[in-house]
Amino acid sequence: MPTLTSPPSRACALLGAAALVLTVAACGDGHGYTPDELDGMVADSAGADGPGSGATAPPETVFDPELLLCTPAVDTAGVPGEGSWSTEAPRSAVGEGPVELGLLPPEDVEPTGVTITVRTPADEIHVLETDTVPGEWAHVRYPEEDGAELAPGVYTAVWSDTATGTPLTCDGFEV
I want to staple 162 with a disulfide (CB 3.0 to 4.6 A). Which of 17, 40, 103, 113 is the partner? Predict the structure, then answer.
């Protein structure tokens, strides 16, 4: 068992002490807010971007067409259903739109409305909605207009529960 005098333990102890000194120094003057004011600021911030506000995923979530997954992954903690939510999207680059995007909910969830947030290569956001039935594919066309031109690049599609804003899964495609 290492002792405090062993090089790795000594280094960790010194780093921990340095972090504590910096924290105390940084917080020494205080921030000027009461705990109630801080709680209100956190609630206002969560209300602006939290569930039910239309926010469906972290803004940095991006589909990687080489790996066929989104990074960072959509956090599915608390997402209803024992099985996974499956998605469908073109797996090879498309030349024009619209493209068909699909979602298959697990069989053990209630029917629900879903919101599909599509982020374009130019960071524009487009929102579509549809309903799901457990164990059946739900599809949307993006863009909804026939013959619509799609800019070259990678598109990210985040599926979320319309009622709560909870992200369910993520997919994407490339033009």
Answer: 113
